Amino acid sequence: MSFRETREMLLLAYDSKIISDEEFLVLWESYRCKNPDFPYSSYARFDLENVDESECLAEFRVQKQDIPLLANVLQLPMNIHCPQRTICDRIEGLCMLLRRFSYPCRYSDMISRFGRPVPELCMITNEVMDNIFNNHSHRISQWNDDILNPQLLQEYADVIHAKGAPLENCFGFIDGTVRPIARPDQQQRIVYNGHKRVHSLKFQSVALPNGLIGNMYGPVEGKKHDASMLVDSNLLHELEQNAFSPLESLCVFWRPCLPFTCAPSGTISSWYTNPSDGSI
């Protein structure tokens, strides 16, 4: 029974003189929902067939015909089960996740599309996200031969050099990213980033010229330096073992303002930007 239904029963019990004034006030406050009471029941439940092609692309950033294919590729279960027994099919759950990630929005903004209360939207989205992470996180947290095999690494290096890079053997770009978080009640100094002046978590990624993330490490505490994060990620060892093309050994770009004396020879390099035209 939901809080709304419970409060309606309390009103009926009070009107029927079953409970006293004091009991009614205590129970009414006990079953007051902390979330705003949005009228989600006035909206129809989600059905992909009723979504227009243009709306699908605008809200989910995926073509309507590709959403079932994406669900199959991600190996999502047919039904998404939440801890409090809420159930939805995988297409609806995937669309919730796509809507949530397509553009910064609140769960309350999704009520009109999915016709569900905020807690259900939150739990379903998190269940889908956890499922994808558990099944596919190794593709970016470990060396992925599907996008980092020797032939493709050489293609990446050729494209970067063709754009004006002085190095002929650089296949990607490595850098740390600061993601602000709410100020925690405890351990504030650990997550405080003095450079950005925010409480944060940090991630390290290797970006490829085709727009994909080749490797991701994190999260780590916001105060950690990028060079320290690079060492902790074990990426240098991975590069030393795998960063080879059929023609030569390869490297990744590293900002010249940061130290990299800890890197094995040939795995990491840097160059400066030409201030006159912005080329590298």
TrEMBL record:
The keyword Ubl conjugation does not apply. It comes from the Eukaryota. Its cofactor is a divalent metal cation. Keywords: Metal-binding. It holds the Pfam family DDE_Tnp_4. Residues 174-242 form the DDE Tnp4 domain. This is DDE Tnp4 domain-containing protein. It comes from Porites lobata.
